[in-house]
Amino acid sequence: MSKLIQLFNDIHLLIEKYEQIRKEKGDNYNLFQVINMTSDETRVHSAMIADLLNPEGLHQMGDIFLKLFIRKLEELFKLELNLDYGDAKIVCEKYIGLKTKDKEGKDIGGRIDIYISDNTNHIAIENKIYATDQENQLLRYHNYLESIAGENKLLLYLSLYGEINDLEKTTGNNQIKEGEDFFTISYSEFILNWLEECRTKAIDKPLIREGITHYRNLIKILTHQMENEKNDLIKLIKDNPKYICLLPKYKDAIKEVEISLYTDFWTKLENAIQNQGYPIVKESFDGYKYALDKNYLRKYYESNNCKYQSVEFVVEGFDEYRLMYSVQVDWRTYYGALIRDNSNKIIPLKDAYEIENPKLKTIISRIDEMIQNSQNEYHSSSSWLFWKHTKPCINFRDLNDGNSASHLSDMNKTIERITKDIIDDIGVIRKDKSNK
Helix or strand or coil: residue 254? Predict the structure, then answer.
């Protein structure tokens, strides 16, 4: 045990050393972290990438960054895209219609995060940092590309490490195949290497260069690529045989600490919600993985497929329907409202609008108004009346994200803030407008 404690102490001292170095050099200063927008896919990552790609972007450097991007795609996938740079247009959040089915029953519609087109060649990019995959999302974008004329069509899925969060969900149970109908690229390699090339081209333009540098450093933080610190940590352990022998215990200790923090989070949150008068549904059933169910608790860390664990409680009943609140986790924590019937089946959003209950219709109307007034915070989906990330948001699969570790170290305050936010939202959607 004393050797394990010594290993932790040595690692702690090394991390403190590099923290001091970063402080002295100013490396901790990152504009995206300052404004608390490190993982906003639409307003930060898609916007930044799209502007660099845009020949008419604010950088005013023409198509130089776009050419670098296309060349890297051609090299990676052995393609010849033949993009006409003179006619190339870049669209962020391209709207391709309502999410529905066409006359042939194909899933269509949505918003493509980044869209590159010269009217003959088309490249659609789905951008994921931590957000969950939507139902049939890649399938819808594939169907859109198939429906338009063009020589070359390329569908890309961009994520931190080139991994797909929920393959079956986004592809409509594998109706389209990776490597054939779409391809994956990563921030950790593809985007970082591209940004380095972009920064080199902007060497004589200080503001553009430093803007790219801030963004590149953000990607390094999100993908854990602070090289010197990581290399010294590796050297510390490899140069000490006694520490190598402790690796299994060290890894096991870290895992158990994370599982314990995960358990504490859900336990404290459950107690806080119940203290507000809302009993938690404590029995798992089809479509509901109770977060403190011992059958699921440890599996969250042992299997990427064991996602969407949650705690749910009834807000109000409407005959054979119940308005439920769910606090859920995929990678990051989020919560929102959904409707179940008395057999616990979730009622899809499109069907919820058809329920003939005046009080429920009023509540749904208020939720629609919430979404309209705060579109960057509140969202809806096929199953959720609304959902939004918790404040603060915890990423249990990456405690570096958004100060997750810090929030968990101050657990009581974190739970208090999340609970207050939940109760405030419930208050908004339940009360009459006349009482606002």
Answer: helix
